Amino acid sequence: MHPLTFRELGDSFQLDSVLQWGSLPSIFALNPADKNEYLRSYTQTYLKEEILQEQLVRNGSSFRSFLPVAAQENGNTLNFSKLARDVGIDTKTMQSFFQILEDTLVGFYLPAFHFSQRKSIKLQPKFYLFDLGVKKALEGSLSQPSPERSSGYSKAFEHFLICEVFRLNSYARSDFFLSHYQTNSGGEIDLVLKRGKEVIAIEIKSTERIDPVEVRRLKRVAEPLLPKSIYYVSQDPVTTKIDGVNCLHWKKFLETLF
Predict the structure, then answer these.
(1) Rounded distance, CA 73 to CA 139, Å?
(2) What is the pTM of this model?
(3) What does the alpha-carbon distance between residue 242 and residue 232 come to, in Å, rounded to a whole number?
(4) Which of 46, 140, 180, 218 is most buried, judged by most C-beta within 10 A?
């Protein structure tokens, strides 16, 4: 079972609350002070202690040092060698730590898109923790809400939407393969869904009003993927289409996809 989706929460869903505290089921019965303590205890008891007790890792101190780094790198393109140097371990151990998080369902990889899945494995992936509140607890930022229009808010919104797609794809058994896409010239697409020969390109923005310039830029970056559909997903309530790009509010997008 995943943390709760916006669909499961129904009228109880509040975006800012989920961006701050995540959506683990137990969190919704607590006041803010207790939410803070619950998430701290969850990360300390489960992530740091139970994984060690299961003897999934041999170097407990390095793993504890790794967890805040994993949270800080959430949603970034992973450079395993650099991260290994920062933590003081070798590259293979760093890779094994991320693999443990995936194996224990604490997070998931977002591989780099390539038409050949074999070649995709050689490219740098991203990694997302399974819950936004757990991510904030691990990096020690629970007491620091991200104001709207800040980079932290934008990254949290992207994390939220990618987790929603990941969960709903699993529940609906839609069989989409999730990845991200980067060009050599620095262009990027946050999320690419592939199922058979069908490719869907998705850009995620926390903005409340779409930017037509960004929409057209997305169209150009996505063209090499030969996508069936391109979506520019935001908090703008107005549904529109620009140069073939579907611009949807995030709820409308998820309802359309799943």
Answers:
(1) 10
(2) 0.93
(3) 10
(4) 218
